[in-house]
Specification:
about 325 residues; alpha/beta; 8-stranded mixed β-sheet; 9 helices; 8 strands; about 35% helix; globular
Length: about 325
């Protein structure tokens, strides 16, 4: 399909602005550019409460959390959310609207996680932080007016990678049990494998293949680290007995094929999977849902799926 008109207009606006791709700028410049996402029109969905707090991290660090509580009476279902940004950029503010939207419309408590970023903290620091945050959320669910028996993990792009890794690790540990995993154009194979979508969508659609190489070079301590299933969930020895998954991909995204291959592999392992490709759309659509219609449809689908899977009202 052709690009969605809104997506086409956005890409033209970016090209006309002269903005450089991530791989051509410094880490600090990339972070400042990504931070402009927080200046977009915010979610208009009301929530009851938003609270920032810190918890102890696995390496003596502190992990920032932003906890969103919906209107109404709990206990609510619980979603631990990991933001995208190639493990290098992004924060609680860049994904504030996404978290508010999911909280208010899916009627669940959202714990958004400010995990450590690379290159200051390389793999597996982000995985370790996300695991610690998920365990903390499950342990403290009652104090959050949430139900630990209806615990989900989710994230977009690098956050989808982290959500998949957390689901795998907690499956192996046996607790806490994860009821659902929301994987939005997840990066699930960063071992150097080149897919057709990486070639077809390498340039011209926002996220570039060279950008992914740049992100991975900052995130991984060595190329060999990409063979670790915690970095590349597709390489896990087994994908069986994982929680139901919603996997969303976009047509003009370098990560499209690996996300769809992961959905197929999950299904082959007996996992209940809903996989949706958004034709005419690009990698950034989810985070730009307040300005891009395809992104709005992605969020709408995620809200409906979470409500069904986590039995929210």
């Amino acid at each position: 399909m052709p690009l969605h008109p809104q997506v086409q207009a956005l890409l033209k606006q970016i090209a006309d602005s002269g903005a450089k791709p991530y791989h051509q700028v410094s880490v600090d410049e990339a972070r400042r550019a990504f931070a402009t996402r927080a200046m977009l029109p915010p979610s208009a969905v009301a929530v009851a409460k938003v609270e920032d707090r810190f918890i102890a991290g696995p390496d003596g660090n502190r992990i920032g959390l932003r906890i969103y509580t919906p209107l109404g009476t709990g206990p609510f279902a619980l979603l631990v959310y990991f933001h995208g940004g190639g493990w290098v950029v992004g924060n609680l503010d860049s994904h504030d609207s996404v978290a508010r939207e999911l909280c208010g419309r899916a009627n669940l408590v959202v714990v958004s996680v400010d995990y450590r970023l690379a290159p200051e903290h390389r793999f597996p620091a982000a995985v370790d932080d996300c695991l610690a945050a998920t365990r903390w959320a499950a342990e403290h669910a009652a104090s959050l007016d949430a139900d630990a028996a209806r615990l989900a993990v989710g994230g977009d792009s690098a956050g989808g990678n982290l959500a998949a890794a957390v689901a795998l690790q907690l499956r192996d540990e046996g607790a806490p049990a994860i009821a659902a995993q929301l994987l939005v154009y997840p990066a699930v194979r960063i071992d150097g494998t080149v897919t057709p979508s990486m070639i077809d969508n390498a340039v011209g659609f926002g996220l570039q293949r060279a950008d992914m190489d740049w992100f991975c070079a900052h995130y991984l301590p060595s190329p060999q680290a990409g063979l670790d299933w915690r970095a590349s969930p597709m390489l896990a020895p087994s994908l069986s007995n994982l929680p139901p998954a919603l996997v969303q991909t976009c047509e003009f995204d370098p990560l499209r094929d690996e996300g769809e291959a992961y959905a197929q592999a999950l299904r082959a392992a007996g996992v209940d999977v809903v996989a949706t490709r958004y034709d005419g759309s690009i990698h950034a659509a989810w985070g730009l849902f307040t300005v891009l219609e395809p992104g709005r449809r992605m969020v709408d689908e995620a809200v409906g799926w979470l409500r069904e899977r986590l039995r929210t009202t």
